[in-house]
Amino acid sequence: MTEGSGTAPAADGPAHRPHRVVVLALDGLLPFELGIPHRIFGRPRDDRGRPLYEVVTCSVRPPGPVGTDADFTIHVDHGPEALATADTVVVPASYELGPVFTEGVLTGELAAALARIRPGTRLASICTGVYVLAAAGYLDGRPATTHWAEAERLQRLFPRIRVDPDVLFIDDGDVLTSAGVAAGIDLCLHIVRRDHGTAVANEVARRTVVPPHRDGGQAQYVERPVPDPQQASTAAARAWALGRLHEPIQLRDLAEQEAMSVRTFTRRFREEVGVSPGQWLTRQRVERARHLLESTDLSVDQVAREAGFGTAQSMRQHLQAALGVTPTAYRRTFRTGGGGVGGGGNRGGAGTAVR
Question: pLDDT at position 205, please?
């Protein structure tokens, strides 16, 4: 692994070193979001039971108390020097960013801390943590997201950023940003999936009791996330489709499962899921293809048929669009333990949110 590449190192032999994730704890932080990286990255193990990540929390000041938005403070054992040791830096949300939030400029203390980060280190933010990356100039000319309620302000304060308020997270290679709260879980699981594949990420999700995958391009806010009990849901149609991904599935087939017209079904589906039935179906097939490429010896043609793409060419096009790599390259990455797809420096790589 090249220094600070953002790709997790191979986990074999005496040279094993966990990928170091340093979480920057700022005054006014949200305890829930601070805990997300520790919960997600603290779980993955290699086939010998060794941790794939090491998670360290640091402050911009010497070790000591850091205030939260709750009625308690936390004690952080590491100062800003920990940032110089990071392979990935995560900046969770804070409600006390001062001039970072009001004027878009770093405090001297924060600027000095961020200056310790090595070039090429992977950077990620959760919710309003994006303001820190933006004020430091890491997001200039890049796409980014944050909590939908903050998107307009972020765009106004940092006009050089291409703010997308409608997605859960954006992966721009070596810089990743997410919306608020639970979207931070989605982002961290996405990073694990990018580094070590779907099987590892799914195991972490199972242990954390969260959905294993919500695509970054899914809408932050859907009109009806919980179906109105007075109206029919599209859940049965989605379950029906997941059991038949290898078969041709038309929109009218899905609508028939709920005894709805195509028009009504399409509207209800988007209200509940946040994307169109076609977009959702393609994403499920991409996930199925990823799983088969990682865990089986099926040929690319066989994987394409099992995932419902029909032909290898069709699957290749969809994986290239979603992940930035071909099926063969994706399989080679996870079969050789060479780290994840779309590592540091691969801007617009795996999981880039696309509407």
Answer: 86
Question: Is 58 designated active site?
Answer: no
Beta bridge partners of 67: 73
Pairing of strands 64-67, 73-76: antiparallel
pLDDT band at 213; cut points 50, 70, 90: low
Residues counted in the chain: 355
Greatest alpha-carbon pair distance for the chain in Å reads 63
For 200, other C-beta atoms within 10 Å of its C-beta total 22
- Residue range 284-306: mean pLDDT, rounded: 92
Contact 105, 39 (CB under 8 A): no
Beta bridge partners of 29: 68, 94
The values of phi and psi at residue 66, to 5°, are: -130, 130
Helix H or strand E encompassing 313: helix 312-323
Task: Give the angle subtended at the CA of 193 by the CAs of 303 and 117, to the nearest 5°.
Answer: 145
**In terms of Cα–Cα distance, which of 205, 151, 201 is closest to 351?**
201
The model's pTM is: 0.71
Q: What are phi and psi of 153, to 5 degrees?
A: -65, -45
**Tens digit of pLDDT for each residue in 160-210?**
999 998 888 999 999 999 998 789 999 999 999 999 988 888 889 888 777
Q: What is the DSSP letter of 10?
A: P
Candidates 26, 117, 127, 154; catalytic one? 127
